[in-house]
Amino acid sequence: MADKYLLRVTAGPSYDSSTHQVVAVNGPNSIHISSEQCTANINVRIQNYRGLPHGSPKSSPYFSSAPHTNDQYSIAFTMIPHKTISGNALVFGNDFDYPIKDRLPPGSGTALNIVRWAIDPGLDGDIYSDKPHLYGPLLSSINLLRVGDKVQGDKYEIPVTFHEDGISEGGLGEGEKVREEKGVPHDANQRKKWFLTEDKRKQWEWEAGRVYQGDFFNPYIDFNDFSLKLPGFSLSALGYIGKQDSLRYVLKNRDNGDVFFVVVFTLVPQGDVDETNANARSSEENKGKGSKGDDTYEPKEDDVD
Question: In this structure, are residues 201 and 88 in contact, taking their beta carbons and an 8 Å threshold?
Fold first, then answer.
């Protein structure tokens, strides 16, 4: 059944899909986002990728080196906030605009309990509500976090020295001092555990103008068939999804709802892609036929103002 779908990944500064760009998965170029909330570059990598745009690499060198040899996907970003935000306010996770409880596969509740117990204890939300959501504090949910220097001026331009390929935990320049002053552990797993405490998160600030890098990855989700493979437990949502259902990741301020960026993974039926391509070819052919005589067209007097 999985071969009847192709995966499409888009990213943008808001929930509005008209603001999104198609992500060149496993490609070398980042999606650039600039909004009132932040300036950001985003890279998405998916192992054994089968999707759009056509011709996308099936994998990335990212998956050939530790600690990513077993990972299935990565959402990596470089971000500069435009306003200072409490460390307790910025969250990362999934949400939906519509109920999904009638389409959740059997075992979803068990899977969620395993995720909270073994993978992300800071995860909170309700998948059975009218607007399902699962958010975790970015400080304790992001796998790798690197803190950089502040940029000069108010243009919020990401320095060319920053890229999302295989980032490591820690700090660059003044960023290392920022972490040390807050007592943040150097080890990624210890940092995640440290920030499970709310008081610790409230002592942290995502500073306006400072460069931050994050990488969110795991070996548990296979986006090619929307399956979840946890330790001792697995399930697939493929038989329960509707036409062009999506999984949406969002970075947002939970205190006021401000969205920083959104990444959407959508399974598109192969037939829809074929029809779109056919319509595009037909349109181009009609343009070609209609162009005959265009070179001899001359405006009449009434056509000229």
Answer: yes
Instruction: Give the separation between CA 51 and CA 241, rounded to whole angstroms.
Output: 17
Token representation of residue 132: 């399902």
Task: Please report which helix (H) or strand (E) contains residue 271, including its range.
Answer: helix 270-290
User: How far is residue 148's CA from residue 177's CA, in Å, rounded to a whole number?
Assistant: 10
Bond preceding residue 67 cis, omega within 30 of 0: yes
Q: Token pair 């999984």 is at which residue?
A: 247
Give this prediction's pTM. 0.87
* Overall size of the chain counted in residues: 305
Task: Give 117's DSSP letter.
Answer: I
Residue for token digits 């192992």?
Answer: 47
- The 8-class DSSP code of residue 128 comes to T
In angstroms, the first-to-last Cα distance of the chain is: 59
Measured CA distances, 150 to 13, 31, 147, 182 (Å):
22, 21, 10, 17
Q: What is the mean pLDDT of each run of 10 residues along the chain (305 residues)?
A: 83 97 94 95 95 95 92 96 97 93 86 88 94 96 96 84 79 96 97 97 97 96 85 72 76 97 93 58 44 40 43
Per-residue pLDDT tens over the stretch 225-254: 788 888 777 787 666 555 557 899 999 999
What's the 3-state SS for 139-183?
A: HHHCCEEEEEEECCCCCCCCCCCCCCCCCCCEECCHHHHHHHHCC
Which amino acid, residue 15?
Y
Structure tokens at 295: 């070179």
R_g over Cα of the chain: 22
